[in-house]
Specification:
This protein is α/β, with parallel strands linked by helices. The chain has a domain of about 90 residues: Ribosomal Protein L15, Chain: K, domain 2, CATH 3.100.10.10. The protein contains four helices and seven strands; from the N terminus they run βααβββββαβα. Strands 2-3-5-7 form a four-stranded mixed beta sheet, sandwiched between helices. It is elongated, with a radius of gyration of 33 Å.
Length: about 160
Amino acid sequence: MTTHKRKKVVRYRASKTHGGGSMKKRRGAGHRGGRGNAGSGKRADTKKPSFVGRRFGKYGFNPRKNEISAMNLRHLEDSVETLVAKGVFTKSGDTYECDLSKIGVNKLLGTGKVTKKLNIVVERASSSATEKIEAAGGKVISTTTAHSQEAVQDQAEQAVSAE
């Protein structure tokens, strides 16, 4: 078993100040805050920071925050074909259908252009994203407006049957 060998440098052989710089710097008890047990808050009654003397522990509210995992239309448009190959999107005719919660996205944002017809089920969508998809002939189904999973499925079936 190997033991830890102390380095020779730490012994400060032939070093007058032992790494303290000039001899003036570590001179006297002022460097140590006084002699013996002096100092340590006894030397001056200064204004203390506001957190001194406060109780330990947690207090206050820390509400759960809804984590938003967003995706822009530009990224969605670029990756439609690869998502079809992976089985996330389904293609029927010229329409692409997808539930974005399968890839961990819960909000659709409107940056980018839409050239394909998309039917998308997502938790939330910005108004610009909804307008662009509907202008391209697609549909956005928001799951936050629906109160149950059955209502979402009914909306999706109505969207498909309307075409």
